[in-house]
Amino acid sequence: MANADIIRLAFFLGILAVVAAWEILAPRRVLTDSKRRRWFTNLSIVVVDTVFARILLPLLPVGMAVMSHRPGWLPYWPKVILSIIALDFVIYLQHVLFHFVPVFWRLHRMHHTDLDIDVTTGNRFHPFEIVISLGIKMAAVALIGAPVLAVVVFETLLNATSQFNHGNIRIPVAVDRYLRLFVVTPDMHRVHHSVIPRETNSNFGFNLPWWDRLCGTYRPQPEKGHEGMTIGLNDFRNPARLTLFHLLVQPFTGKS
């Protein structure tokens, strides 16, 4: 499990660096808020989330896989691949749940209050949401008896693709049209961060793009275009109220 943590940290830092550089070289949108303030807040949340999750749930999904994996009729490699796909579908369903159940939305909306969207937005989640998500993933791992390798690969991919598809990066339209058949692209996921509710409640996938198409939640483009769309939530537009402290207490204040 120690090696799994090292692998995830290496991918986290590597993808963060690559996408951050890409955002400088080929940005998709002009940023409207202070990048320095947003980066400090979003990366501080990563630290809080990590400490919080480790204290409350020291047995993480990889540990659950070590305990619950059992031999079955399916050969090892097909089981690894199918486990990764199944876990991704669970995360899609979890994401939908966090949008439509009010008590969960109070936690998840912190992610949507970012006034811009870039690589660090992919790490902007309330610590209570992280703990609930870990609990859901651990239950799913135990239920399907996922191999340890499948869980390590899935967790690494989920973190990497979350940073990638939140990136403020420009990908040629022709390439994006093909790429989004296999992975959630930044242009596909950006629609999900629109202030327009029907767009916010679409494109829930983080890694594999198929679930949105199969479940009827896919929306190919924002109606105002990527340069013209407004990012965030209408009720949270004041940057002074989007600091680390305000975000951490946000689920317990204001209207749902």
TrEMBL record:
Keyword Cell inner membrane: no
Transmembrane regions: 6-27, 39-60, 80-105, 134-154
Pfam families linked: FA_hydroxylase
Localization in the cell: Membrane
Organism, as annotated: Citrifermentans bemidjiense (strain ATCC BAA-1014 / DSM 16622 / JCM 12645 / Bem)
PANTHER family in the record: STEROL DESATURASE (PTHR11863)
Domain Fatty acid hydroxylase: 81-217
Domain of life per record: Bacteria
Name this protein carries in UniProt: Sterol desaturase-related protein
